[in-house]
Design brief:
The protein has one domain: Uracil-DNA glycosylase-like domain (Uracil-DNA Glycosylase, subunit E), CATH 3.40.470.10. The protein has ten helices and five strands. The protein starts with a helix and ends with a helix. The protein binds uracil (URA).
């Protein structure tokens, strides 16, 4: 049932024309991962490699993400991975407000279907979006990264764990240690919360 809903959603995203990004994309990049999944990672926007393949995080940032996941014993196939907008912005510019708004319903449906325990927004934009979605005050990523924030009274079981965007490490090497530490904290949280991820369930 859920798998069918995911297939339908991905089909809608593939032919979406809700914003100007549809005019310049090669492929839409809905995201991928198990449904349901305890862990849900949200990036910013597809880049060149993602646009060409239709898969999220397959370029340099994806390599960093996979390496970080491996340090806590996870494979990318154990977690759900997507981005705020599903189509590549030209020249990899930052997605605009109206593009983020046009794509918002897709992300919400993905979260609903995936029913995660932990949302992991990666980078400033994803963190801002998730905090504002749950009516939480915005706290800059430089202060909130690596901290667990509960999504609210109506979502007791859902928590947010913001981290820097993996691409930030490639632009700003001193962040490497910070993002590494945050992923180690994420690994401890997964243990503490007893989260079951797909590889362990099979
Ligand atoms: N950066 C993102 O935020 N998403 C991708 O899919 C790739 C790079």
């Amino acid at each position: 049932m859920k798998q069918e809903a995911v297939r339908n959603l991905n089909r809608d995203i593939a032919i979406c024309t809700r914003c100007r990004l549809s005019l310049t994309r090669t492929n839409a990049v809905p995201g991928e991962g198990p449904v349901p999944s305890a862990l849900f990672f949200i990036g910013e926007a597809p880049g060149r490699n993602e646009d060409l393949t239709g898969r999220p995080f397959v370029g340099r940032a994806g390599h960093v993400l996979e390496t970080l996941l491996a340090t806590i014993g996870l494979q990318r196939s154990s977690v759900f991975i997507t981005s705020i907008v599903k189509c590549r912005p030209p020249e990899n510019r930052i997605p605009r407000k109206d593009e983020i708004a046009a794509c918002g319903g897709y992300l919400q449906t993905q979260i609903h279907l995936t029913a995660p325990t932990l949302l992991v927004p990666m980078g400033r934009l994803a963190s801002e979006l998730v905090f504002s979605h749950f009516g939480l005050p915005n706290i800059p990523i430089g202060r909130i990264h690596g901290q667990l924030v509960y999504a609210g009274k109506s979502c007791r079981d859902l928590a947010i764990f913001p981290v820097y965007h993996p691409a930030a490490v490639t632009h700003n090497p001193p962040l490497k240690g910070t993002i590494f530490e945050d992923f180690q904290a994420l690994g401890r949280l997964i243990e503490e919360k007893g989260l079951k991820l797909r590889d362990e369930q099979e």
